[in-house]
Amino acid sequence: MNTGLASVSRRRPETDIEWKEGARLDGLNSMGLRAAARLMAVVRTEQALSDFLEWAAEEGEDFVVLGEGTNVIFAKESLDLVVLRLAGDFEDFAVDATGITAGAAARLAALVKAARESGLSGLENAWGIPGLLGGALAGNAGTRDWAIGDCVEWVEVFDRSGVKKRLARDEAGFAYRRSALAGRVVTRSRLALRKEARERIEEAIARAAARRSGQPKGVGSSGCIFRNPPGDSAGRLIDAAGLKGLRCGGAMVSPVHANFIVNAGGATGADVLRLIETIRGRVREKFGVELETEVRVIPSKG
Ligand code: EPU
Fold it and tell me: What are the Cα distances from residue 100, in Å, to 67, 108, 167?
């Protein structure tokens, strides 16, 4: 397929890294945007990750780490950058009596399910949050009053120069929908959980599911687009500004929950970004509040 993207001909390590030129990213974002990256590297072991990082440093190549793309917007259809994906060993996780040790490519939903089945409490609020553990940690995913960072004991990361570090929770910089992990490659984490009666766990999951019932389903979206401003709710402000149903091309403010932008058909990244700016402008005009995006925008160039 001709993606119109320049190919990369420089030396690349021949180890366990799987290289894909002009890699399609269409299935790799929950907004359902069409995109392709100049180059994708899939690593399945820590050794392959080290080799990749050495290559990227030597070649001066910047890269973005992409999991299931549940919180990302691709700025353009053609991305002149390198995408790194973790798979294989990084998908593994193990449950024991006091928690779960998991690779960054484990699905958060699988961890919630495993904790529930083992009678472990602490992850119930993550019920319904899509995506992989690494992205959830980097963005400190959660609800209004709980975030994944709350149950982290440690996080292992590789920095861009290939140095591996184990960070205690306090060193990971967790705050509301933020962490100090973005910019590094999260590879593994230990989530500390506690034994709890099955009934309590089921009740907590039912409460989490009820909170999510007011959110759009069965349609492409990236979850909440904006962080909540202190003491208020981005969804409430956007709704009160009368913006539900507003469209830019194929991107639309969800009629169900105003802090969601949904793909109403054939949306492009540019449509979504235009809609984001329109919403910010209207909310600023009407309420004097500056909304900050929660989603990560992947630029067209590395
Ligand atoms: N509201 C409206 N109109 C809307 C949407 C919401 O008036 O269209 C009002 C609601 O009535 C409520 C208030 O705004 O009074 C807050 O809404 P909601 O309870 O839905 O919570 P939220 O603050 O919008 C947060 C998280 C969600 C998380 C839910 C459930 C943020 C930015 N959002 O939403 O996280 O699922 O709580 O706990 O912190 C995400 O981060 O991607 C995300 C979806």
Answer: 20, 11, 16
